[in-house]
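[recover] target loaded
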């Protein structure tokens, strides 16, 4: 029918070939064209940002899955374990809008450097902490550092990518985060078993310092950062917050990361205390879902530029709802692994489409930093409430009940998103 766009013709008899051919082309493009496959005229900047996030998040991934066990050894109850994770999320959510808006006006590089330096200092501080209150305080400071890194880097990438290739660009970039998160926990478990928990903290500090060196050497100076010349001033933070379509993205991101908070904060305890699993298998559980999501970032990002991004978000949300519920019935390590992999599959489908929609929205408002900051604030609040919800479930009922609670939150996010995001 004339007048129907390519996304309206998605569900036809050629669907299989529409999936197979673009994905194979995307893989071939990466393997054979190298940097030419990057959808940006500023490939050096893109590659530098990619490796900064990969190195930094690997360092964080080494430490974070070990924190619940460390806190539990210090005598922390479930709610205190949740507060160690929650302090990070509260701090990040508080500082994100401010840093995001400032980076739209002042530039990206100074905030990225400051955040990396904060991460480096925080990692050393972990070594010298001997009580739960100290862990909570350090995580609060770490949250402020995180607020200066991730949304600012994502805004930078969104600013330099080609128009119409937002899904592919963000999917390619998100590989840095997802693959490092999948590698970090396994590395952390191995470092802990081979040496000590302190060695894992020092690894995080060294990797953060390496990220700062890359930022200093390879990112352009502040005077050259304004790659896209805006014809109008960035929208104010108040205007961006009131955007209805952005609210739909925020609701879904919040629901998804509430489930991530449950997995990251309490899956190590659940696997260790209920199933008696060792550090290596616990690290594999935490990283498996992230690895699945990371493996799908590129093909699903490529698909998000050709299919309905809204449908991809909903389908991914449904799979995530099923995946977070599955561990409730788990009777073995393989059951837990299956659940986190299904959850990761849903995120791998939904997140490239969601971030592509956010990049488009940031371009419309000329406020990439503010949009990414608000989306990341939803991430932080989701991590906080998810971990607190799991902690309360652990203290008042049973730890296994955290997973049905997460499934309910995810299902609500899937239902609300289409009603708020109605852009065609």
């Amino acid at each position: 029918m004339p007048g129907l766009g390519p996304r309206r013709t998605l569900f036809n008899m050629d669907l299989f070939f529409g999936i197979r051919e673009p994905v194979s082309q995307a893989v071939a493009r990466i393997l054979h064209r190298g940097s030419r496959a990057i959808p940006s005229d500023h490939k050096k900047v893109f590659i530098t940002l990619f490796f900064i996030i990969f190195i930094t998040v690997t360092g964080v991934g080494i430490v974070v899955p070990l924190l619940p066990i460390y806190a539990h050894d210090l005598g922390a109850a479930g709610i205190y374990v949740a507060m160690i994770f929650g302090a990070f999320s509260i701090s990040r959510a508080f500082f994100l809008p401010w840093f995001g808006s400032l980076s739209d006006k002042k530039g990206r590089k100074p905030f990225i450097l400051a955040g990396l330096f904060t991460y480096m200092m925080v990692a050393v501080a972990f070594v010298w902490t001997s009580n739960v209150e100290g862990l909570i305080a350090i995580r609060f400071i770490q949250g402020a550092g995180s607020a200066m890194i991730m949304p600012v880097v994502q805004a930078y990438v969104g600013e330099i990518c080609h128009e119409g290739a937002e899904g592919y660009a963000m999917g390619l970039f998100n590989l840095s985060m997802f693959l490092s998160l999948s590698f970090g926990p396994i590395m952390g478990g191995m470092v802990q078993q081979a040496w000590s928990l302190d060695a894992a903290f020092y690894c995080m500090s060294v990797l953060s310092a390496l990220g700062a060196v890359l930022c200093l050497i390879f990112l352009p100076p502040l005077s050259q950062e304004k790659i896209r010349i805006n014809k109008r001033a960035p929208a104010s933070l108040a205007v961006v917050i009131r955007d209805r379509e952005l609210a739909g993205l925020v609701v879904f991101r919040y629901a998804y990361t509430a489930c991530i908070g449950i997995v990251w904060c309490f899956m190590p305890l659940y696997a260790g205390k209920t199933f008696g699993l060792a550090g290596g298998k616990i690290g594999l559980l935490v990283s498996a879902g992230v690895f699945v999501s990371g493996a799908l970032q590129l093909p699903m990002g490529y698909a998000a530029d050709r299919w309905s991004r809204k449908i991809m978000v909903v389908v991914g949300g449904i799979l995530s709802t099923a995946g977070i519920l599955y561990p409730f019935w788990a009777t073995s390590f393989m059951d837990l692994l299956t659940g986190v992999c299904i959850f990761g599959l849903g995120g791998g489908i939904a997140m490239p489409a969601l971030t592509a929609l956010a990049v488009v929205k940031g371009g419309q408002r000329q406020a990439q930093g503010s949009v990414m900051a608000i989306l990341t604030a939803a991430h932080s609040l989701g991590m906080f409430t998810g971990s607190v919800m799991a902690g309360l479930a652990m203290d008042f009922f049973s730890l296994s009940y955290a997973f049905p609670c997460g499934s309910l939150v995810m299902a609500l996010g899937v239902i609300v998103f289409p009603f708020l995001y109605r852009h065609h």
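[recover] notes: The chain has one domain: 38-420.
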